[in-house]
Write a structure and sequence with these properties.
The chain is an alpha/beta fold. Helix content is 56%, strand content 8%. It has a five-stranded parallel sheet with strand order 2-5-9-1-10, sandwiched between helices. It has a three-stranded antiparallel sheet with strand order 6-8-7. β3 and β4 form a beta hairpin.
């Protein structure tokens, strides 16, 4: 064994000695490379023998060496800098992942706390697990709630109420233009709410283009009142969901299953949707101050559902499994979202609210309400019974009878090319599809085609300009205004031009 150990020692010594020598060689080489004293000594040794031209060549040689050494130093510097940045990115990613994990844990803790608080409330009310909690916690005075063993007591009560219900046909015969004036007169004569015909025209056109309408503007101009009046006009009071800053997911809209009580905490929105599924009437859900929390948090699933072209796919899962005593229209724990419901959000843009993202705006139709309508003498008008199928047919007929003209479509395509080239912003298929619904209905309501296009583009396309650095595109904005005047006619695109001029003033 002694022989082997001597062999192993000498064998490894040979390897590691060479390894150490390699690094010493590199280190010594670097020292020699930067040994200025040696360079000076060589120059001093030969300096007396140099003539004039040789001194020029010597200077060039010295310069080349200096450049090479400088290049090596810069290379080492950039390599070190790159490594530091790489390590910083890795550390930041790791920190972010840790933060996400901590947030997930906090969410889980909050949900557990929420369940605990709910259980305490239930126990204080004298309930036991498995008993109905929805009546006493959220709506103690609701005597219509069914208190059977069903985990959906409110929806079960709706089933009982509509057990023998037959869909009613009202024999509607009005036009969209007549609908505008009828609603306007109703709001003024019955509710003392005054709106311009143009505002009502835009509102109904927005309903035709999408299921989510956003009413925005300064406080006190009647945003919520308009949605409220629409519900009164249709003889179905709008279901108001007052958005709270704490809203984080869809349970705020639909409710959630309480594992402690074995009941589903049903919201009024869920009940409204369920009732709408029985009828052919028109219903409205108001998301009041919808951007006081992030819309894409609590309304994300609905945004995706409502965009599906096949309405049979408008389904939301409430619970993961079916119970024998579940409500009639909840199949396998899933509820079909009825098409006769519109969602109207009101937003205020101030420090207490969140910015509405493109994901929401692209799927909605925003309307600006920044001034109050003038008082006028209305024709006394009562609320109306209107079938959803009839209103939907009016929308479809308007799209068939008043399609956007080829000339206007060509101008829109030219505008699209111009915006892409100068601002790197595109219309997108979704926006074009909304426009082809909005504009024909706007015309059928008594409006002008170009005015409809003008308003739509100002609210759906030019809004995206706010994301750009306005100071850098001031000249481009002036050029765009000239393009609009040249393409559509001087002053025809008034809404777009006013919007662009307001943007310029922000710089």
């Amino acid at each position: 064994m002694d022989t082997f150990f001597r062999f192993l020692y000498e064998f490894l010594q040979q390897f590691f000695s060479a390894f150490i020598l390699m690094f010493k060689g590199i280190f010594n080489g670097i020292i020699e490379m930067f040994d200025i004293k040696s360079y000076i000594g060589i120059i001093n040794f030969y300096k007396n023998d140099f003539n004039g031209p040789e001194w020029v060549l010597v200077s060039l040689a010295i310069l080349c060496v200096v450049v090479i050494i400088g290049g090596i130093i810069l290379l080492i510097y950039f390599l070190i800098r790159k490594y530091i940045r790489f390590r910083k990115t890795v550390v930041e990613q790791e920190s972010l992942l840790e933060e996400v994990a901590d947030l997930n844990n906090q969410v889980a803790d909050l949900m557990n706390e929420k369940e605990s608080i709910l259980a305490m409330k239930v126990s204080q009310l004298g309930l036991k697990p498995g008993e109905d909690d929805t009546v006493n916690i959220d709506d103690k005075k609701d005597e219509n709630v069914d208190t059977t063993s069903s985990r959906f007591p409110k929806l079960t009560a709706v089933d009982n109420e509509y057990a023998n219900y037959k869909i009613q046909t009202y024999g509607n015969s009005f036009t969209l233009e007549e609908l505008v004036e009828t609603f306007r007169n109703f709001a003024a004569s019955q509710l003392k709410l005054y709106y311009k015909s143009e505002m009502i025209r835009l509102f109904i056109s927005a309903l035709a283009s999408t299921k989510l309408v956003i009413l925005q503007g300064i406080s006190g101009t009647g945003k919520t009142s308009l949605a409220y009046a629409w519900g009164k006009f249709l003889k179905h009071d709008s279901c108001v969901a007052s958005v709270q800053p704490s809203w984080r997911d869809r349970t705020e809209l639909f409710g959630y299953f309480n594992e402690f009580t074995k009941k589903f905490n049903e919201t009024e929105v869920l009940k409204e949707l369920y009732v709408a599924g029985y009828t052919d009437d028109i219903y409205t859900v108001i998301l009041d101050e919808m951007n006081i929390s992030r819309v894409e948090y609590y309304f994300a699933e609905m945004l995706s559902i409502l965009e599906m072209p096949n309405k049979d796919e408008w389904i939301v899962e409430l619970v993961s499994s079916a119970w024998d005593d579940d409500p009639k229209n909840i199949k396998d724990g899933k509820l079909k979202i009825p098409p006769n419901v519109w969602y109207i959000g009101t937003i205020n843009n101030d420090d207490s609210t969140f910015m509405v993202t493109d994901k929401v705006y692209d799927r909605a139709m925003p309307l600006d309400i920044n001034d109050k309508g003038q008082v006028f003498d209305p024709i006394p008008t009562e609320a109306q019974d209107i079938n959803y199928t009839y209103l939907d047919k009016l929308f479809s007929d308007a799209m068939a009878n008043n399609p956007i003209s080829e000339d206007t479509l060509n101008k829109i395509n030219e505008m699209d090319d111009y915006v892409i080239k100068h601002f790197r912003i595109a219309f997108g298929n979704r926006i074009v599809a909304h426009m082809k619904k909005f504009v024909p209905v706007y015309v059928a309501c008594g409006g002008d085609e170009v005015d409809g296009v003008d308003y739509f583009i100002a609210r759906k396309i030019l809004r995206k300009f706010e994301q750009l650095n306005i100071s850098y595109i001031r000249d481009e904005i002036d050029g765009y205004i000239e393009f609009l005047d040249k393409t559509f006619g001087k002053g025809k695109m008034k809404e777009c031009e006013e919007y662009l001029l307001r943007l310029k003033k922000l710089t």
